[in-house]
Amino acid sequence: MPDTLPSDSVGLVTPETLHFDEPLALACGQTLNSWDLVVETYGTLNSDRTNAVLICHALSGHHHAAGYHTMEDRKPGWWDTCIGPGKPIDTNRFFVVSLNNLGGCHGSTGPNTLNPETGELYGPDFPVVTVLDWVNSQAALANRLGIERWAAVVGGSLGGMQALQWSISYPDRIRHAVVIASTPRLTAQNIAFNEVARRAITSDIDFHQGRYYEHNTVPRSGLMLARMVGHITYLSDASMGEKFGRELRDQAYQFGYDAEFQVESYLRYQGERFSETFDANTYLLMTRALDYFDPAYESGNDLVKALEKAHCEFLVVSFSTDWRFTPARSEELVNAMMAARRKVSYAEIDAPWGHDAFLIPTPRYSAVFSAYMGRVAREVGA
């Protein structure tokens, strides 16, 4: 890190843990009587509390979306390219709230935190949560912060699903929903990818039915394989080809089964690093929440009818090479919004990076995102 932070950074930030004693009823039928959320905020809430933006994270995300925790940090928050002074989510204009969802493994109540009723880690006893459960907990967070209505709820991938759920479940508490690289529900192929990832984890000899904490171990190999499978789906064939091609590590075949190609080495590195920082039970929870998401389900499988409940305006963004959540799925969502007579703006961005493109700034993506959020800011007088 340099001695000074970038001028367009939110700077040094400190997470805060907020405790809730109000019971939270979950879709699975269980109730969390008390729970914590870890939150970071950037920018300043205006006097009439109208300029708040909620950031919803994807599967492996967390509360640290922008800025740095220390001057020694090598990398900023996961969406620092989009959050900060002069960036699409401009912290000179917006008060930005980013959280780690329930069931996460970065401080919010989840499998790797203590169950107050037993004094032991929740582990596999932590209840299965859904996108709706997350949105309900986020509504309680908004109440705690004194925010009656979000200027926008913004998210990519699984985060976009949360923004969409907000529009349906709390239509009077959200002005705009920004749904990026997302989908109204998973395809069978996407559910299949998630099942392979879960089986990789649960088949690991160190999984111990999710009670690996008690055995002082983690299912490292299974979590590594799950991440490798997932990571492949986040990239496009073109981006992998451009980055790795068929390059060998040692310029010659070794006639064995170790990592000989650069792409193999890269995937192993990503998997190993992930297995050291992420909780396996949380990965199971997050992928199942993805599988269950289907806002049309409660409306007779009619997405148009579900979206008729929404009052907000929408921005939907897709990426040309995203084969995990293809542009066709975003177009399906946009068509349903139009049929429901909702106001919606849509852009398909030509970008070579597959699903991960929502994390990578490109001129057109940044221009579309900035223009829309600029309009949101003007609406709320920010």
UniProtKB/TrEMBL annotation:
InterPro entries on file: AB_hydrolase_1, AB_hydrolase_fold, HAT_MetX-like
Species the sequence originates in: Marinobacter daqiaonensis
Gene Ontology annotations of biological process type: homoserine metabolic process; methionine biosynthetic process
Its job: Transfers a succinyl group from succinyl-CoA to L-homoserine, forming succinyl-L-homoserine.
Subcellular compartments: Cytoplasm
Protein name (Swiss-Prot/TrEMBL): Homoserine O-succinyltransferase
Subcellular location, principal: cytoplasm
Enzyme class, first EC level, given as a word: transferase
Superkingdom assignment: Bacteria
